[in-house]
Amino acid sequence: MEQLLQQLVNGITVGSVYALVALGYTMVYGILRLINFAHGEMFMLGSYFALTLIVSTRVGVLQLVPNVLLGLLLVFLFSMGLVSTVGVVVERVAYRPLRRSTRLAPIVSALGASLFIQNAVMLTYGTQYQVFPEGLLPTTVWRVFGVEVTLMRVIVLAISLGLMAALYAFVQKTPLGTAIRATALDHDAARLMGIDVDRIILTVFLIGPALGAAGGIMVGLYYRQINFTMGWTYGLKAFTAAIMGGIGNIPGAMVGGLLLGILETLGAGYISTGWKDAFAFVILIAILILRPTGLLGERVAEKT
Amino acid sequence: MSRSRGIALFLLAIMIVGVGGCAQPKAEEKKPAAPAEPIKIGVQGPISGQWAFEGEGIARAVNLVAEQVNEKGGVLGRKIQVIQGDDKSDPKESALVAQKMVAEKVIAVVGSYASSLTEPASAIYDEAGIVHITPSSTATKLTTKGYKRFFRTCFLDDRQGLFAAEYFSKKGYKNLAVIHDNTTYAKGLAEWTKKYLEERGVKVVFFDAITPGEKDFTPTLTKVKAANPDAIYFTGYFPEGGLLCKQAKELKIQALFSGGNAVNNPEFVKIAGLDAAKGAIVTTEPLPGDLPYPEAKQFMEDYKKKYGDYPKSIWVILAADAMRLIVTAMEKTGSAEPAKIAEYLHTQVKDFPGISGPIIGFDEKGDRLGTIHKAYVVDDRGEFVPAP
Predict the structure, then answer these.
(1) Residue from A141, A225, A228 whose CB has the most chain B CBs within 10 Å, to mutate
(2) Which residues of B touch A273 (CB under 8 A)?
(3) What ipTM was assigned to the predicted interfaces of this complex?
(4) How large is the average pLDDT for residues B15-39?
(5) Mean pLDDT, to the nearest integer, of B227-250?
(6) Fold that domain A2-135+144-290 belongs to in CATH
(7) Where are the domains of chain A?
(8) What confidence tier does B5 reach under pLDDT thresholds 50, 70, 90?
(9) Distance between CA atoms of B256 and B275, rounded to whole angstroms?
(10) What's the CATH fold of domain B2-155+292-347?
(11) Which of A295, B35, B53, B55 places its Cα 20 to 30 Å from the Cα of A99?
């Protein structure tokens, strides 16, 4: 029983990061019907920018900023902002010129952008693992009902859920959010209603990468070890989560992420840790056979 | 295009080797007539490229031994001339270097560093009948090709498994969790360790793989915790090793954390954090500076005197041992013929005082017998020091 609870805690933390990254895939897909393969790299860039900021401003060592938490908050905001900028640039350079072409062209372009960013980071920082400084946040561990819960896990969960709730409220309640939903339904109709579709696409490419970056920063702060290929590993999982929940559907990505995290953890815990991924993907296939649109996906009429 | 050129080069290599092989006996016959002619011994290594650091050390060690022998008047009344070949960390270059060695009519070669570099060269040396000793290539397949004159002064992965199993059973550990990462090396080491542990009556209560490149191993570790081992042995590499060690601590797993020689890296401590890494054990070849033998202490000082710094890696030491074995074989057999040297190494080496420790012989495949592995522990400053 304790083992089950512990595995659930493990799964939910991992899953919340998947969910955060999955949102970027699902939002872009919702608006452009494009699988943004460069999104995993936004996650990776987030952690590299954060590391660079932490090391160069020496947060927690130099006390340049009066408080470590405030310092980290600034690191979060700056890194997310930088990654958003990269996201917008990628959209301008790699996707916008191809908007009227076949559906395959932007996907190839996305793969190209992904390789470009990965190699740029590799050449800048080197191939070795980068390590976040130790002791930025206390490594407190609480014991709750026989389950070990670390402070960092609580932080990861709180930030992920907070960001997701904020995004949900933004998309559901604000005029800009409504415009995003309208554009996702039908570009032309949205344009007729006076919505600037290019601005909506820009907004999506600001928000998605920022959320991905937040995930990357938290992974860096918690696991403390990052490398330039990690965008691929996490990106693949997040993409799977987006499909599981129904790609294009924002709550679907959140549910899919958490579900994937929990499923693979239970697979590891009760079947075999070596077969963890296989187990998660078998579930994905099963879901897609039973519900081809994913868990929360709606049947969308194919647009011509 | 480049592939067909590669094949053409390879064929050319074989042709040259064939010629070299034929020429070899004639060269041997001529030698007694000109006793002053030096004995040529090759050293092949990645002196440039990604493994340049290791290749340079290997070449330095061989040159140093040759110099020492020459100062004492050489061997069989002749001087040793070292022919140096840089394979540039590239398997294609390795074959070219091997051809050069054959053309130079060397009698023996020490090298190369990585298994991927040693393999193409070993085929060429075998054709040419040259004695070939690698100080550092541990891939099992290298000695399974039936080459009669190929040896290694390093050990296969199963020796490390044997050492680890002996260490744990000697220290009184009863239940072990063995974790690998499904790479050839790590899985092999894990399986050997499991086999040797069970032979010694130590129970393996957990045996499974993690996926390298991932960051969260708490699902695996939660399962390990439930199996309640008194030690965890991880046979993969340091990036995952560091994360496992850190996360085990977070899950309040009391078991000792230990790893194989791929965990032996300062980054391990950085990733795990000093708090978690403190007390962790790694099984590995000893660092040159920790070798207790008088030959080793002497060699370390000689090396420093010539090159300004102590040798950093064990492979340097094993390269020196390879060279010393060749020289000894020539002295003992009174001959510089590869066939005699190979026969001596196969049959006569019993307890040669190696710098890396006693060399108790080679098996019929050319693999070194015994083991030189040691246990290291992470101390309070986060450094690996020999474990008590």
Answers:
(1) A225
(2) 208-210, 219-220, 223
(3) 0.83
(4) 53
(5) 92
(6) ABC transporter involved in vitamin B12 uptake, BtuC (1.10.3470)
(7) 2-135+144-290
(8) low
(9) 13
(10) Rossmann fold (3.40.50)
(11) A295
| Chain A residues bordering chain B (beta-carbon distance below 8 Å) | 3, 6-7, 10-11, 13-14, 128-129, 131, 134-135, 139, 141, 143, 148, 150, 219, 223-225, 227, 229-230, 233, 264-265, 268-269, 272-274, 276-277
C-beta separation of A43 from A160 below 8 A: no
Q: Which residue of A has its CA nearest to B181?
A: A274
Domains B2-155+292-347 and B158-284+374-386 fall in the same CATH topology = yes
Say yes or no to pLDDT of B218 above 70.
Answer: yes
Domain B158-284+374-386 has CATH 3.10.450.350: no
Structure tokens, A65: 């900023």
Class of residue A185 by CB neighbours under 10 A (exposed 0-12, middle 13-18, buried 19+): exposed
Residue B206 has pLDDT above 70, yes or no: yes
> How many angstroms separate the CA atoms of B46 and B50, rounded?
8
Q: Does B334 touch chain A (CB under 8 A)?
A: no
- Pairs of residues, one from chain A and one from chain B, whose beta carbons lie less than 8 Å apart: 80
Q: What is the mean pLDDT of each run of 10 residues along chain A (304 residues)?
A: 88 93 92 90 94 80 65 89 95 90 90 93 85 81 85 91 93 92 90 91 94 94 89 90 89 92 89 81 87 75 46
Residue A182 CB burial class (10 angstroms; 0-12, 13-18, ≥19): middle
**Both structure tokens of A224:** 């403390």
The pLDDT value recorded for residue B45 is: 93
Query: ∠ CA A276-A260-B211 to the nearest 5 degrees?
Result: 30
- The residue extents of the domains of chain B are 2-155+292-347, 158-284+374-386
